[in-house]
Amino acid sequence: MRRTAVAGGDWERVRRAHRWCDTHASLCPLRQMEGEEFARRVSDQCQLSERAIPARLLRAYRQTDYLAAGIAVRVARRVPGVFFAAVDARVAVLVTAWNPLSRRMPTGWNQRMQRRLRRCLHRFVVLDASGSLHRWREAMLLVAGDPRPIIRLAARFRQRAVVILRRGQMARLKLVSRWEC
Is 0.85 topped by the overall pTM? Predict the structure, then answer.
């Protein structure tokens, strides 16, 4: 099979999605295509499995008050400089394991997943945090350090987004693709 550009360059994902094709290559219509047409068809199929986040959920993410180290933070608002003294870093990420894919789960299940996430983050500086909007509240973790491994963990725990905080910049909502794990 010739390797041409696939959206994001994730050939492992393509191979897993089409594992059947390895043994039945002559029957698979995707395997019979060459070059750009193959790449286009495969990336189209992979994008179909991604679900768009509803506008009301994005609005809820933006309106949520995130509280960490005693300081409130909101998406698209400047992060106070005092905030980073608590974590002794220039970049931090707010992440949770609660309510995967934005579906409400029982409290016990959420707490168990949060403990697992904390164990996975044992190499990072981690502080307790929370996110709240009206009557809704979710436990979160403030993790100091490079956002990339934290985003991969968020994808593994089926989260749709994380909040990235950088010194001197606005808090940014980063949507997590399930293919980032």
Answer: no
